[in-house]
């Protein structure tokens, strides 16, 4: 049934493409508006008999590269490509039908769920879009360059981000396990290489990654120490975007009334603009704390050097 459906699908797409769409002359004796089988074969750089067998629903097994060439020849859009690969026996390509661009419908939905924090992520847990409460949930995401808006990168590289998820070790363990599961689903994505190379600089990440643990851990309560409203107890619900299955919409839901009230307060401060002054105060407070911590380190090092000097004398 799958091969028969593949044949019907290919024929329907071939009939839709006009010769002028792919740079071919219409010709005087053309009986149909679409392409001929031999024309598709030439455009895809495959044998005419091979392509004919595919349309006839025979038990042949095209490679990914052959299907990619046919998709290009038939001018398939991302959703049609995903369908082609599913029928061709490559279901893993269905989760990667196109790019990670966030459509207007998803962006609108992010604001519809306010005051709940929500974000859209790709398979590598890079944040592609977020609503105002999500922006201030952990760190100011607007100040993070897009290339660094990745949940795993932030957990290992950003002290501010790392200090807010508690317990941090458990947060990292689950996050890496989720990343490993996503990796297996989209192995062919070329963006995995640079990400894993960057994260591989951290011994803790390498240890967690090499453990082989995978999982999605639905329903777990996350404790987030928000710098503006205090402790938030949240559960995350994640939905796959049907229009682009590379993307997922994640919404944090409060597990108690106190958390909901604090989210509403945070949203109110964002709406009236007072969050900016509060952000400045938080940044200044952290700068003072870092300066004090640095002074303690310098004093400790100086004391150690003096002790060594006295022993030598």
TrEMBL record:
Q: Which organism is it from?
A: Brevibacterium ammoniilyticum
Q: What is the name listed in the Swiss-Prot or TrEMBL entry for this protein?
A: Helix-turn-helix transcriptional regulator
Domain HTH cro/C1-type per the UniProt entry, residue ranges: 9-81
InterPro entries linked: Cro/C1-type_HTH (IPR001387), Lambda_DNA-bd_dom_sf (IPR010982), MLTR_LBD (IPR041413)
**SUPFAM superfamilies from the entry?**
lambda repressor-like DNA-binding domains (SSF47413)
Origin superkingdom: Bacteria
């Amino acid at each position: 049934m799958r091969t028969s459906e593949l044949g019907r699908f290919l024929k329907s797409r071939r009939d839709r493409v006009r010769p002028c769409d792919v740079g071919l002359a219409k010709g005087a004796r053309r009986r149909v508006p679409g392409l001929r089988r031999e024309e598709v074969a030439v455009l895809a750089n495959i044998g005419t008999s091979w392509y004919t067998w595919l349309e006839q629903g025979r038990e042949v097994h095209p490679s990914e590269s052959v299907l990619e060439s046919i998709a290009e020849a038939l001018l398939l859009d991302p959703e049609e490509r995903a369908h082609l690969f599913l029928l061709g026996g490559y279901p893993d390509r269905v989760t990667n039908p196109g790019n990670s661009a966030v459509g207007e419908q998803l962006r609108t939905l992010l604001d519809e769920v306010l005051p709940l924090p929500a974000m859209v992520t790709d398979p590598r847990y890079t944040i592609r879009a977020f609503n105002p409460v999500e922006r201030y949930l952990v760190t100011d995401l607007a100040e993070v360059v897009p290339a660094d808006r990745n949940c795993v990168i932030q957990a290992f590289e950003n002290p501010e981000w790392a200090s807010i998820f508690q317990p941090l070790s458990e947060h990292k363990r689950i996050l890496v396990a989720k990343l490993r599961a996503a990796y297996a689903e989209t192995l062919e994505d070329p963006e995995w290489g640079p990400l894993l190379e960057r994260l591989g600089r951290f011994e803790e990440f390498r240890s967690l990654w090499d453990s082989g643990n995978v999982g999605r851990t639905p329903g777990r309560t996350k404790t987030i120490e928000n710098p503006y409203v205090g402790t938030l107890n949240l559960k995350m619900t994640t939905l796959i975007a049907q229009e682009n299955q590379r993307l997922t919409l994640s919404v944090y839901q409060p597990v108690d009334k106190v958390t909901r009230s604090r989210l509403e307060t945070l949203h109110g401060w964002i709406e009236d603009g007072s969050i900016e002054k509060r952000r400045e105060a938080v940044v200044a407070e952290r700068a003072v704390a870092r300066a004090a911590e640095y002074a303690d380190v310098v004093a400790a090092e100086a004391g150690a050097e003096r002790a060594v000097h006295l022993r030598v004398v």
